Structure to design on (784 residues):
């Protein structure tokens, strides 16, 4: 049985997808990873820019200036100021070459075309120099950045409106299990409602992946090998829920074997999610997630999520995590590594009740997972625990 | 000038939208807020469920049992076991009423139809009782919960496939500023590329709001009052970028005044984002965000975001925040409250360079904002600082 850390390392180094590069308009780039560095097309600001409403002056000997004109944001006037002259100017407007300071309007007295100041103006005051934020041809964003809203604003401001990004991996979700009934139908004795399919779909949608229809497979060997064979050859990633086990009813395990899927690991020394399977066929990754919903959710964020980020060329591959003080005591006889549902608070992280792997209700409140290494039997309030932030 | 805390309080209590309730299928419910409590339609699990692969037994006097049948997950068999009898059983399968424990297969020796155990079985062992996770008619999720992927899994598992949610607020983005040029065009002297529109659109898209086309308004009074008049009457929220100021070129300020928009607050004692305006006309909220991109981004997450969550009926209205140790020293002469771009690390939060309000580049790295109250002049490494987590 493999350790959590080793399993995660195997996932993160499994970067063998042939990525397709495509050019998209910036508006459509949210959630894609950059396939090239973004280089600024301009100096930003492109001109000496006033950072205040006030008066651009050519610093003179006395405390009064003669106003010879006006420049609003967006104007392209370039007045020629001599010493002791000023122009009325507004935030964002270009400061004339012949001006070396901007006086703030609140500190000025005005009389006709004359202004008076009590300040001794410093050269460069309230002027943003050309290229203060970024220079033309300088690196704006590195290849591998997964584009968020702030990046879209930044890229836009440096004049770039098309970007080269990596295509997303194609993903199939295959749900197995004779006990599953589609939500909305009557529930016969011995059956439960299928919930992993809709949950996985919405997790993928939240992360801006193309959301596949959930494929339900009948509980017999022929259907299983046919469905897995086609989804594996058609996709970069196949996520099977229902898990694999050993024994005569494990059609998934037999099918994967007969399809020559190479086992990378099977069973991780963790709770929940011990019977996790990860395999490869060619460049396709195959996960079999445990059927228990909370175990499936944990395995998705701890293993599938970093693989997807790796395959799409993102340099940041994992959820944000940090060490926080536990606000709870916790005792366990568990020798496996544990992922505990938790909720972050102002001053630390609280462990939630309902940690059984079949328990999804605690995830209704949870916004984090606490990772406890193997053989952690006691957590005392105040202990630092590794906290992985869920994306909501 | 209003304080940050007061401005935020005014936003959070501004819950006067007439919310429309709609029924959506669970698949389409991601990112909507529940308009009603979700009540479980079933006991979950709905039957006594085996949590292991093994043998369901009727506990007898000796350590061997006679196997009289087999129950797979999804089967509806109900064998009648007498003392000393067993059935082969698999994880998720229904345990017969006449069985009171499940033995794990790993601890069993099998010979023909006889099994032997060295354990002394406890009553109820490895059986999930009916309704362990939730009882029929019990509360599953409260009205006001904004539905995430875990909720979709949970709701699905309790048999609910349609939910009543609140409609989303309709939002308009209006971009003003004579200095702005659409990305992709040539940049004349005195102009800069427009970046707030695309940034705001992608922030709204990331939060699953209907994404409006960005409306550009010409820099004259007639266009401004016409555009603002129609967008205010057609939407729940109007976000204007470019800000308002005082003076003869402030068409936005004059138009809002002449449209009888009531000022709730104008200017917040903060950096960046001091010239923030928030007003109301009827049930419509109007923001004028500062034109500086980083200030606009900060104002969006600190003020607009909680208002949107309030209007859509979400009980959780603000980004997650927590107190973390600063990993940086920071000095400032600023008396206003400050929002600093920052990045969380394993052991605390690091303050980024480039805090000027025109600097968006630091947001390329940032995943958090540090809030410093008024008159905070020094932060020393190790000090606890309030850290607001950005949603990426």
């Amino acid at each position: 049985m493999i350790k959590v850390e080793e399993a995660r390392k195997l996932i993160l180094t499994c970067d063998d997808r042939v990525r397709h590069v495509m050019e998209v308009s910036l508006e459509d780039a949210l959630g894609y990873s950059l396939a090239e560095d973004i280089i600024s097309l301009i100096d930003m600001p492109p001109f000496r820019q006033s950072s205040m409403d006030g008066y651009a002056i050519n610093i003179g000997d006395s405390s009064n200036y003669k106003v010879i004109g006006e420049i609003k944001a967006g104007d392209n006037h370039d007045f020629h100021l001599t010493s002791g002259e000023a122009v009325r100017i507004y935030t964002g407007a270009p400061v004339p070459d012949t001006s070396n300071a901007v006086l703030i309007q609140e500190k000025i007295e005005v009389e006709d075309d004359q202004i008076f100041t009590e300040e001794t103006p410093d050269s460069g005051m309230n002027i943003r120099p050309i290229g203060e934020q970024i220079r033309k041809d300088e690196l704006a964003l590195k290849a591998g950045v997964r584009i968020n809203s702030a990046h879209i604003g930044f890229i836009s401001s440096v004049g770039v409106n098309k970007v080269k990004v990596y295509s997303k991996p194609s993903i199939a979700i295959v749900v197995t299990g004779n006990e599953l009934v589609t939500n909305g139908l009557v529930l016969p004795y011995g059956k439960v409602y299928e919930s992993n399919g809709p949950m996985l779909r919405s997790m993928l949608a939240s992360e801006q992946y193309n959301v596949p229809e959930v494929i339900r497979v009948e509980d017999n060997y022929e259907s299983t090998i046919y469905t897995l064979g086609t989804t594996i050859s058609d996709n970069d990633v196949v996520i099977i829920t229902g898990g694999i086990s050993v024994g005569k009813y494990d059609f998934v395990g037999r099918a994967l074997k007969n399809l020559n899927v190479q086992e990378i690991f099977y069973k991780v020394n963790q709770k929940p999610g011990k019977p996790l399977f990860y395999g490869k066929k060619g460049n396709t990754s195959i996960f079999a997630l445990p059927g228990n919903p909370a175990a499936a959710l944990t395995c998705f964020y701890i293993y599938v999520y970093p693989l997807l980020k790796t395959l799409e060329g993102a340099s940041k591959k994992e959820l944000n995590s940090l060490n926080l003080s536990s606000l709870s005591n916790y005792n366990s006889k568990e020798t496996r590594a544990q992922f505990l549902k938790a909720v972050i608070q102002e001053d630390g992280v609280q462990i939630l009740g309902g940690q059984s792997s079949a328990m999804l209700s605690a995830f209704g409140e949870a916004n984090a997972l606490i990772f406890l290494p193997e053989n952690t039997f006691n957590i005392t309030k105040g202990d630092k625990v590794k906290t992985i932030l869920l994306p909501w």
User: Anything to note?
Assistant: The radius of gyration of chain A is 30 Å. The longest strand of chain A covers residues 337-345. Chain A touches chain B through 98 residues (CB under 8 Å). The mean pLDDT of chain A is 93.
